[in-house]
Amino acid sequence: MTTLLIADDEQTFLDFMVRLLQKEHNLLIGRNWNDVLEIYESNIWRLNAMILDVNMPGLSGDPFTMIEKLLKSNPTVPMIIISGQDIVLRHEFLKMGVFQYHGKPLDMVDLKLTIQSAIKHNRALRRLENYDKAEHETVKYYEKMLNLSVYDVKERIMGQDKEPRRSPVLIRSEQGSRPSMLAKIINSEIDGKLFFYKACHPSLKNFIPYNLQNGDTLFLEGVENLGKEELVFLLKMLQNMDGGNGLNGQNLPQFRLVASISNNVDIESADPDFLQLIDYLSKVEMRIEPLRLRKHELREVITLMFEKKKRTHFSRAETISEELYELLVEYGWPLNIDELELILEALILTCQDEIVLQKHLHQLDFSDMADTKYPTLDDMVDEHIKKALRLTMGNKSRAAKMLGITPKTLYSRIKN
Description:
The protein has helices at residues 11-21, 33-42, 63-73, 87-96, 108-146, 150-158, 179-191, 204-211, 228-242, 272-281, 295-313, 322-330, 336-350, 359-362, 377-391, 396-403, 407-415; strands spanning 2-7, 25-30, 49-52, 79-83, 100-103, 169-173, 195-199, 217-221, 256-262, 285-287, 319-320, 355-356. The protein is of the alpha/beta class. It is globular, with a radius of gyration of 29 Å.
């Protein structure tokens, strides 16, 4: 049930409001400004809206100061003012951010509709606030997972930006290193607008002018996979954006392009247009180190991901044994973060004990393995992938989705 704060120094009015609203709402009643402050401070996160009279006892100073104080304390709680004061005051209160102003005598239908709208407004603001908190927590998680400083990323990118142009960013990484994580950090912490995640595809020439707006971030994964036509289009578009020109008679939006490239690309034999594109993108270049080069911090990364997965899956397992930690840290992680996530998720889903031990690796499904020796992590990943392919009747896209990895990562693993 929603909670409303109602305050007025006229008892007959309060009695009327109680009869009108008590069936649908939990009511907190105040008779002066001291009551309002006390109730408000002790219930600030429960309130969905407040309905106040301005002229009540206990007002120290002018009413505008008091109203402003309440509005700033928690902007998600809409304020409805009911008063018989002059209409000029109504305009002043609305300018301050008061949700609605009703004069006396009241129109009951209007008041009820206002309260319903205020509650919807409150819920929308709370959802937005919770979303912002979740986004901030996600960025912090990515920052630790990639061992990047958000401050350093900001400084490097914003140092290259020139209004209205937003500098493109190139991310160099190995497969499975999740460059999309870094792209989300850039979008959230620097641009803060809509984020588009797109694998390279010929439809780019239609996608960019019609779907992107000023301030958006577009992440292209694997620019080494661009076709010739798409490559030429992207290069021409970036050059035209830099010069402030349109493209084929169309005005281009000022968006941020974040592109990733594999460290394994053979630059020496690459197409000249591709080399020109990479040179253009490299004005701001970021590198994501593979897990095998981060052994000194790998234990912290494993713990971080394990805790996150444990909350997601309501795991019975609470911690990882020292022996298993040592095995995981010493492993080479050829598929990087994708592989780490796959292993930890499999362990969490299958382990029925409070501590995940080295023996739990062996309890995963290895029924097809010809060799009966203790399985390596590479063996585990291969068998997990084979099982997913069997369950999906060989459909690689569905298998990749089931495993929580990209089709590109799955194809690479199968090829290897």
